[in-house]
Amino acid sequence: MSDQDSTPEGVPHPRGIRSYVRRAGRTTTGQAKALEELGPKYMVPYQPQPADLAQVFGRAAPTILEIGFGMGEATAHIAGLMPEKNFLCCEVHPPGVGALLKRIGEQNLTNIRIIEHDAVEVLENMLPEAALAGVHIFFPDPWHKARHNKRRLVQPHFIAKLVPRMQAGAYLHCATDWEPYAQQMLEVLAAQPHLRNTASAFAPRPAYRPLTKFENRGIRLGHGVWDVVFQKA
């Protein structure tokens, strides 16, 4: 993985792509406590049918989908900056789910809901058309080897599934620290007729996306980070 908050994602299987790769990890005592105490309130069970998002969040508000939040550092920061928005967050790594629940409790965040399930299946089965005001895909697994590039999440067939779930004017924000994947993101999104780039090429990092500790360390070492922000016409 390229970032401690990286998105685990992208393995082909008989039914299509997945948004993740399961990886080993130990759930800490604090994360386990958060899962037990806060999980029932902030976790949403996966169901293979459209969800009523107003019911899920207890209010009607613009909903942002986050695919793969890692340990939840950026997710909690952004949700705290935007209390007027709902954040529906998908992650399959239990320690990451526990870590975000712990942040929810510590920061008294009420606008996050977590689905511990493959984001591609959530997208296909739980999200109605035009349900999303925005989508965040931060530091997805870059699958460095050329023979594995097909496992990357941001591909034409995935974007074709995502765009109908986005409202007119909704945005899609991707970020990566692997330049070949950044170029692929730019090409794939530019080829989607219903999306337009908000910049001439790569976008400046939006102020709401924080620099993680890992990212700051990479920048000090001269590593690049690329943001891509497109909007649905």
UniProtKB/TrEMBL annotation:
Family label: Belongs to the class I-like SAM-binding methyltransferase superfamily. TrmB family.
Protein name (record): tRNA (guanine-N(7)-)-methyltransferase
UniProt key word Cell membrane: no
Organism: Ramlibacter agri
Binding site for substrate: 145, 177, 212-215
Function per UniProt: Catalyzes the formation of N(7)-methylguanine at position 46 (m7G46) in tRNA.
Catalysed conversion reaction: guanosine(46) in tRNA + S-adenosyl-L-methionine = N(7)-methylguanosine(46) in tRNA + S-adenosyl-L-homocysteine
Residues covered by region (Interaction with RNA): 147-152
Record keywords, A-Z: Methyltransferase, S-adenosyl-L-methionine, Transferase, tRNA processing
Residues bound to S-adenosyl-L-methionine: 66, 91, 118, 141
